[in-house]
Each structure stands twice: as structure tokens, then as C-alpha cells.
Amino acid sequence: MNFLFIVPRDKHFDMVSIPPGVIYVATNLKASGYSVTGLHLSFEEGDEQAISSAIKNNNIDVVLVGGLSSQYTAIKTIIKTVKTLNSGIKTVVGGGMVTAEPELVMANIGADFGVVGQGENTVCCLAGVLETGADPGSVDGLIYWLDGRLKHNPPRAEVKDLDSLPFPDYSIFDYPQIPNMVQHVSGLPKKVLSITASRSCPYNCTFCYHPSGSKYRRRSIDNIFEEIDEMLQKYEIDHVSMVDELFASGKGRLEEFCDRMKPYDLTFACQLRVDGVDEDMLMQLKEAGCILISYGIESADNAILKSMRKNTTIEQTEKALEATRKAGIFIQGFFIFGDIEETQASVQTTLKWWLNHLEYGINLEVIDIFPGTYLYKYAVERGIIANRLEFLEKGCPRTNVSKLSDGEMNQLLDKVIYLSEEFRGATAGTRVQRLHKNGACDMAAPCLHCGHVNHFPEVFFEFKNTRSSAAGSCEKCKSKMKMPPADAISRSTYKVVLDKALDVYFEKWANKRIVIWGATEKTSCLLLGSQCLRDSVVAVVDRDFTFKAGRLLDLFEIQDPQILQNMEFDALVIGAAGYEEEILDTLHTMGRKFEFLDI
After folding, report:
1. Which DSSP symbol is given to 233?
2. CA neighbours closer than 13 Å in the CB half-sphere of residue 196
3. Burial group, residue 355, by CB count within 10 angstroms (0-12, 13-18, 19+)
4. What values do phi and psi take at 406, rounded to 5?
5. Do 25 and 94 touch, CB atoms closer than 8 A?
6. Helix 72-85 to helix 580-589 angle, to the nearest 10 degrees?
7. pLDDT 10s digits, 97-123
8. Cα–Cα dist 330/545, whole Å
9. Does 467 have pLDDT greater than 50?
10. Do 123 and 25 contact (CB within 8 A), yes or no?
């Protein structure tokens, strides 16, 4: 039998070219002797055509697809496409989405089989059943249809010995970008190899879900470096990204990894806890090539950290961040607002701390709630999420479980966006030193925190978005930096020129139907600057329409993006900066055809 693994279009894996679960399952199936092909829709032009070609060219019998709960609609569309092309093909769905809500997903998504939990052994057993016509009731970890009803087999035991699994076989997905895609790590272009060194996490934060198992398991250091050695022989790689939920929970493992990593001409990044590092350990990490550490910071209010079950304190965070910056390692971290116990007072505590420590460049976000988490169960039990299927179909929209009112949550969203744009990584005194023929600039920018003048070669700025900036880090102190073009050309100059240019730009779209996705400051500026645009807009939609209830500029109702499923429109403007590819993927999944006005 021939098997096809499909990865949906998705931007959740910016640092991972193939989701780890998919490549491990596909590799294990291939190693068991089956014919396995991979298709990554993010690297294809059109979904339906790509799926059709892959099925026909490889004579596919079984299609496997999976992902996160937020990808439910995209995955359902893929399954529908497969069944339309050939109803005889068996479809298998897996990933965190199925593990969190197996019955709900299987009852509505249209697949023949669902894999609950880790899939390596389950899929191999299922393949044997499909090939021989045996009873699928013998396959642990499977949910499937039998006589018109769902049958949920017993759970499969978690893989304890991770060293027993074959190394990822990236040749299954035959793309030049995999696995050594060039990505920017703390402002530096790197050819990245992603390594999964462990599974699950020993902690149970309220906003986290561990589809890879309930117990924290780790590969041996020997096994990890055997994989690195093998990949270095096959691919051009200069950076290793450890993509575990938690790379290490003890100093011994970190020290052993650092000792083994030092001889390699590689940099690496990993995720650690603030209570798991000290100055000596961080210096060892730096000497071994570590250039980025991602910490789960979450809040500066100890009461909120306790409610989140983080088992950390802001005092531990302060100590870890100070030591990390001293070691010269770039910091990645988030403050996420919206915990069950979040109040206006706790929000202010975190924002005050953030404004006093801009040198760390901590990101600001609002909690996303996903099936399987404690927060999701809390929201369902209290009727905050009244319709679980609708929640999946809408891509797991932001949901308010905090002590803030929806109005206060909307204000918080606006504040988070504003503060991130204006202050996180802010610089002053940016200078353009050279303009290249391709439009790139060589920039010089002093760090506001240590004064070191940084030089950034070939930075691209776009006139169409005055808030665009190139992000990097100070070479000396590793503080986050942005280089806004406003220092080279004043915002008042932009405003005069941009207003004139906007109406010229939108004149050709007169009498056409334009949709704007994102009720943001950028959207307001575009609408204020162009009468032609105002006359052509038929809808303004926003993922957070429930919080942003009301009318934008008292002109346009802010609506649910789902209305675009059945709305005819000619062109799209995206006001939600940074989410362009995700929004376009969503609309393409809906089957909408339009022209994207990239302004």
C-alpha cells in the first residue's frame, strides 16, 4: 500500500520546517517497509492541485493528515478534497487536535480513522490492518467508524525509549527547504535543523496541553548527537533548534550537552525554565554556541503565576533574565494576559514591570485557549465556550476567562498592540549608511541600553507600511532592537506622501468590493487616508470581533471572519500586520478567490 502524509498550510511552525510528530510517524512507517510520500502545502501553489497530483503520481491508498486544534477547518478541507478526488482512499487524522477531542473531531471531520496520542506505533499497526483486512479493534490508540458508530480502542502506551525511534527521514518531504531552511534567529540568518530531544513536560501549566504524552521522557545525549552527525553529512546546517517543550530540567544534562556541543561549528537555541539556570550554567551554554534561550515567563504578578501553576516567581525570572543578558544570549519570552485570576491590578503589575525592563524585549500577548488545556475545560464547564464544535470551526478564537470584562479585554488587546509596536525593541538615532540597488539598506543604530553602535547590512524597509521594522539584537548586550525608517524620514513626511498615494492606489478599485481583515490602527489610517477605499469596503472582519464589538470609525461593523465563507468580494486588504500568511491560508482554505492588495 502507498501512504501520503499531508502537512496543512500553517505558520505555527515558523521554527520547524516539518512538525515533529508528522516526520517521526512518517519515518517510522517508512522504516517498517511501507511506501511513504510527503506533501507540505506551505511549499505548494494550490492545495487541491497539489493533493490531486500527489495522489495520482504515487498511486496513493491512504492519506494521513493532522495538526493542532486551530487547524481543524484546514484539515477538514483536505480530507474533503481527498474524498472528492477518490472516495476509496482511506483517510487518517491525528495530532493534538484529535488527542484533545477525539469523539468531537471524528464525528465531524470526515476521516475514516483517528490516531489518539503518539502515532508512530499506532500508524504502523493500522497499516498492517489495512493491508491484511484484519480487525482494527486490535489497534490501541485508534478511534474509527464501525457500523455507523465511533469505536474508541484502549489508549496506547507511550513510547518510553525514545532512542529506539529512527532519526527523522526528511527525504520523505522532497523540498529543498527541508530541513535546512534559512531562518532568522535573533536577527541572524541561519540554516536551521530542528531536533526533538524529549517529549512532554514535567509541569502542568493551565494554558498548556501535552499531546506527546503525560510523562516527561528524554533521549540520551549520545542519541541526539548521532542524529546531528547524520544530518550534518546530508545537509548544510549551521544552527540547531531544540524544539522541546522543555529541553532540560537539570544541570547535569545541560552540562553534558554543552561539553558535547563545543567541538561543533554550530550555534543552537533551546527552551528552559527561569528556575533552572544560573550564571555558571549560562556561561557554559554561551561557550557551547547557545545564542537564544526561550523562557516561559508569562506574568510579572506572583499571584497570576501561582494560578497558572507555573511554579516560578517574578524574582526567579528577574535573576534568570539578568544572568542570560550578562552571558550575551538573546532572550525570547512572552507575557500572556488573560489568566482566570487576571484583574486590572495584575495587568498593571506586569505592564509596569515590562516598561521598566524593555532591555529584555519580552513579547506581549493575550492567552489563546486550546482544547485539552485546563483553561479550555474551565471555559466549557462554565459555558464560556458554549459550542465546542463551533469553537474548533472558528480556529479556537480568543476567549475571555479572566476577571476582566470583554470591554476591558478589548482595551487590553489594543494596549498590548500599541506598547509592543512603540516600545519593544525601540531604537533612536537610526541612520541609513548605504542604499543597495536591490532596495536594501545598510543601517547603523545605537543600542538604547548599552550605547553600542550596531551595523545591520542589507535591511529591507517597505514604504507601504510605516511601522515596518527589521528586528535583531544588540551585538554587545543582546537587547532586542528594531530599526524603524521613521528615524531616517519623519512620520509627518510619510503622512503627507502616503495620503496622496493612497487614493491614487485605490482609484483603480473604485466600484469593486474590498474586504479588510484586521480592525487595527493600520486599517484606520488607510480608511482615513482614502475616500476611494472607504467607498469600496464591503466588510471589516477581525479574529477578536467579540472583544472589538462595535463599529470601526463609526462606519463599519467589526464582524466574524467566518462571514467570508459565503461573501463575494474582489480584493483583500490585511490590517493585522504579521498575520498575512496565516490569513491568506485561511481564506484559501475556504476556497475564496480574490486579489490580495499588499499595501
Report:
1. H
2. 22
3. exposed
4. -60, -35
5. yes
6. 40
7. 999 999 999 999 999 999 999 999 999
8. 35
9. no
10. yes
Contact (Cβ atoms closer than 8 angstroms) between residue 230 and residue 277: no
User: 429: which DSSP letter?
Assistant: -
Q: Which residue has the cell 489610517?
A: 525
Q: Cα angle at 194 between 6 and 580, to 5 degrees?
A: 60
pTM score over 0.90: no
108 vs 18: CA distance, rounded Å: 26
Distance CA 205, CA 321 (A): 21
Overall residue count recorded for the chain in this entry: 599
Query: What grid cell was written down for 473?
Result: 539584537
**384: CB partners within 8 A, 6+ apart:** 378, 399, 400, 401
Distance CA 265, CA 368 (A): 38
- Please name which of 84, 80, 66 lies closest in space to residue 8, comparing C-alpha atoms: 66
Model pLDDT for residues 408-451, shown as the tens digit of each residue: 998 898 888 888 877 777 777 777 777 777 767 777 888 888 88
Q: Is the peptide bond before 102 cis (omega within 30 degrees of 0)?
A: no
pLDDT (tens digit per residue) in 279-326: 999 999 999 999 999 999 999 999 999 999 999 999 999 999 999 999
DSSP for 165-218, written as a single string? SPPP-GGGS--TTTTT-EEEETTEEEEEEEE--EES-S---TT---TT-SS-EE
470 in helix, strand or coil?
coil
Judge whether 307 and 350 are in contact, CB under 8 Å: no
Cis peptide before 179 (omega within 30 of 0): yes
Number of Cβ within 10 Å of residue 383's Cβ equals 7
User: Distance between the two ends of the chain, CA-based, in angstroms?
Assistant: 48
Note whether 472 and 454 are within 8 A (CB).
yes
Tell me if 274 sits within 8 A of 321, measured CB to CB.
yes
Which parts of 361-507 fold into alpha helices (H)?
374-381, 388-393, 406-422, 491-507
DSSP-assigned letter for residue 4: E
Amino acid identity for residue 64 in this structure: L
Name residues whose C-beta falls within 8 Å of residue 430's C-beta, 6 or more positions apart in sequence: 443, 444, 445, 483, 484, 485, 487, 488
> For 289-387, where are the alpha helices, taking DSSP H only?
302-307, 314-327, 344-356, 374-381
Supply 244's cell numbers: 522541546
**CA–CA gap between residue 241 and residue 12 (Å, rounded):** 15
CA angle, 221 as apex, 218 and 223 as ends, to 5°?
85
Using only the alpha carbons of the chain, give its radius of gyration. Answer: 25
**Other beta carbons within 10 Å of 332:** 20
- CB-CB contact of 24 with 120 (8 Å): yes
Alpha-carbon distance of 556 to 524, in angstroms, equals 11
**DSSP, residue by residue, 234-299:** HS---EEEE--SSS-SSHHHHHHHHHHHTTSS-EEEEEE-GGG--HHHHHHHHHHTEEEEEEEEE-
Other CB atoms within 10 A of residue 265 CB:
7
Model confidence at 462, in pLDDT bands (50, 70, 90)?
very low
Cα 103 from Cα 111, distance rounded (Å): 12
Rounded Cα distance between 24 and 120, Å, is 7
User: How far apart, in whole angstroms, are the C-alpha atoms of residue 444 and residue 433?
Assistant: 7
Cell of 521: 490602527
